[in-house]
Amino acid sequence: MSLISPWRTDFPALDALERQGQVYLDSAATAQKPQALIDALTHYYANGAANVHRAQHLPGAMATQAFEDTRHKVGEWLNLGTCGHVIFTHGATSAFNLLAYGLEPLFQTGDEIVISALEHHANLLPWQQLAQRRGLKLVVLPLTADGTVDLDAASSLINARTRLLAISQLSNVLGTWQPVSTLVEMAKAHHALTVVDGAQGVVHGRHDMQALGCDFYVFSSHKLYGPDGVGVLFGRHEALARLRPWQFGGEMVLQAGYEHATFRPAPLGFEAGTPPVSGVIGLGATLDYLNDVNQSTATEHEARLHELLCTGLRLREGIRLVGVPQVALASFVVEGVHNADLAHLLTEQGIAVRAGHHCAIPLIDRLGLSGAIRVSLGLYNDSADLERFFDALDQALELLR
């Protein structure tokens, strides 16, 4: 089956990588960037960079307008309506730490924070460290055999002691959608706060925050074909009212003296100092580009590519998929072959994949693995990329076996 990406020419790095003999199959780590983003960054820097929200001059006004336009575009992308605010951070990890420190006063010794067994370190370690600081219990939801959270177990583990649920929407290792809506409903029944890690999920399809119902939703720009150094934190009004600032400095302050200060409400109250101005403007340009992409066509393209990837892996002797991947990525192990050795041979043949624990060491340990190879797909990948991958994989396995 031959699949050609209609968006490939929109990403100039693909041509450059091809000239270098490279095939990029690591989009779950970071995605390549469309020309629309590159043009927006060039325009911003070439026509007068400026700080935002604090200058009366024209460059400052233009930067502030473009910055706030992006906030509006993110709100539309997530269908926020008027239910909450978009806060810009320096990455998804920064957003999770903002939440962990900003919500800390709400917890008392013996309270419980619930996560799942598949969380990325970014949605594990901030809660783990908060639990240690405050004498809380960190509860880990188990998985079923197909790699989704066990809802039967969750129904008892999420209870009256639960104060917060933090859950990934789409696993970066297993490629499985999680039953987030159901878990959010379970947590809400006990008046617990809910945090959804959308770093992988936001890339695939459109997600309605009004329907999802979570208190906070986090994602990274760089996985959504946007610039790096930018994170997005959506928070509902009532949840943000309980969140204290965790960084202090310029712009987030209303009034300051030597002994006392008052702070702005959300969103600016959580954007201390100079934000990633160019990155936020670039994210806005990326969302404009993605809004022009036919979503059903993109979903179908990803699904067909994913089927080719998984079928090809299953047909090869000794290869075992990790979990039951559903969209855009697949992790696998090879009997008798170390993932690092295989990744090295793939790299020598110009195949860019991820190897190791994928920033999810507890999950990899729980699966009884030392690591895995992960192949992840973007809008720009096509069947020719997978053909080169499988050719390289076969050659590598012939050497290693």
Write up this protein:
By secondary structure, this protein is an alpha/beta fold. The protein has two domains: 8-25 and 294-400, Aspartate Aminotransferase, domain 1 (Alpha-Beta Complex), CATH 3.90.1150.10; 38-291, Type I PLP-dependent aspartate aminotransferase-like (Major domain) (Aspartate Aminotransferase, domain 2). It is built from 14 helices and 15 strands. The protein has helices at residues 12-19, 35-46, 58-77, 92-102, 125-134, 151-157, 180-189, 209-212, 237-240, 277-291, 295-314, 339-348, 361-366, 383-400, and strands at 23-24, 84-89, 112-116, 137-141, 162-168, 193-197, 216-220, 231-236, 253-256, 261-263, 319-321, 329-334, 351-352, 354-356, 372-376. A seven-stranded mixed sheet has the order 2-8-7-6-5-3-4, with helices on both faces. The protein has a four-stranded antiparallel sheet with strand order 11-12-15-14, covered by helices on one side. Helix 3 (58-77) packs across helix 10 and helix 12 (339-348) packs across helix 14. The mean pLDDT is 96.
List the helices and strands and how they pair.
Elements: H1 12-19, E1 23-24, H2 35-46, H3 58-77, E2 84-89, H4 92-102, E3 112-116, H5 125-134, E4 137-141, H6 151-157, E5 162-168, H7 180-189, E6 193-197, H8 209-212, E7 216-220, E8 231-236, H9 237-240, E9 253-256, E10 261-263, H10 277-291, H11 295-314, E11 319-321, E12 329-334, H12 339-348, E13 351-352, E14 354-356, H13 361-366, E15 372-376, H14 383-400
Parallel strand pairs: 1-13, 3-4, 3-5, 5-6, 6-7
Antiparallel strand pairs: 2-8, 7-8, 9-10, 11-12, 12-15, 14-15
Helix pairs in contact: 2-10, 3-10, 12-14
